[in-house]
Amino acid sequence: MTLSDDEVGQRLAARLRDVRSRIDAAARRSGRDPDEITLVAVSKTKPASDVEAAYRAGQRVFGENYAQELAEKSATLAHLGDLEWHFIGRLQTNKAKYVARVATLVHAVDSMRLADELGKRTGERTTPLSVLVEVNLGDEASKGGVRADELGALLRHIEGVSSLRLRGLMCIPPHVSHDASAVPGEAARPFHQRLRSLRDAHGGATRLPVLSMGMTDDLEVAVEEGATMVRVGTAIFGARG
Ligand SMILES: *Cc1c(COP(=O)(O)O)cnc(C)c1O
Q1: Is the separation of the CB atoms in 225 and 193 below 8 Å?
Q2: What is the DSSP string of 87-129?
Q3: Residue 178: its pLDDT value, please?
Q4: Cβ 108 vs Cβ 66: under 8 Å
Q5: The ligand 1 atom nearest the CA atom of 107
Q6: How far apart are CA 190 and CA 137, in angstroms?
Q7: Nearest 5°: CA angle at 234, between 228 and 209?
Q8: Which residues lie below 8 Å from residue 61, measured CB to CB, with a gap of 6+?
Q9: Is the pTM of this model over 0.85?
Q10: Residues of the chain with pLDDT under 50
């Protein structure tokens, strides 16, 4: 069965409302203002028409993981003037130019080399490119992110690149096996706590106002631990093929 545009739009609007109310409830439970938390709708692998439908339902911030896909979708949807693109994936230095052109925030900077390359590619922008540093909390060699003991040096380096603006930290907790009786996402809590304490150890919210953590399964826990941005794909756009 193929859904009409209207049906797709209504379903996306309902899912967005549902995710937003999960965020708001978690914020209130922990004594936080729900307005401090930005929802990044992760649209990777989904068609531009889904992004446009979510936009019509009021969503403005979207996250993409692949430079080529971001370049294509942002061109297709260029008529939606106040739509904001965040790049949340691992970025190869040779793709930095596509991202620096259209993204308002890059979530996963994890090396001086990548920071330098992004900084060089901001030529057409009138404002600095905002970036977050991804921290590797799982210590798995295969994953992205800077090691906690190298974080300080990378933060100072980025502050020395005049075309970049350091905004905060990001993490992707490693997959932890879930106990069937556990609260969803509870296994991710120690990682969110760790990112927050690293933020506190490196200048706090004055220097690093943004904490990007929490996805479909662990967004409540992330908000309880201080997330100011949650990156949610599946709960909004459905499972990826
Ligand atoms: C895909 C992705 C997400 C969204 O994950 P869901 O579980 O679908 O909500 C968030 N952050 C990053 C870095 C991703 O790659």
Answers
A1: yes
A2: E-S---GGGHHHHHHHEEEEEEE--HHHHHHHHHT-TT-SSPE
A3: 59
A4: no
A5: 13
A6: 10
A7: 10
A8: 38, 39, 40, 41, 84, 86
A9: yes
A10: none
The reported pLDDT for the residue numbered 217 is 93
Ligand 1 contacts CB of residue 122 (under 6 A): no
Q: What is the pLDDT of residue 180?
A: 57
d(CA 212, CA 10): 28
Q: What pLDDT, on a 0 to 100 scale, did the predictor assign at position 241?
A: 81
What amino acid is encoded at 97 in this protein? K
Ligand 1 atom having least distance to the Cα of 215 = 9
Structure tokens at 21: 């109310």
φ, ψ at 231 (rounded to 5°): -110, 105
Is 91 touching ligand 1 by the criterion CB < 6 Å? no
57 ligand 1 Cβ < 6 A = no
The whole-angstrom separation of Cα 122 and Cα 85 is: 15
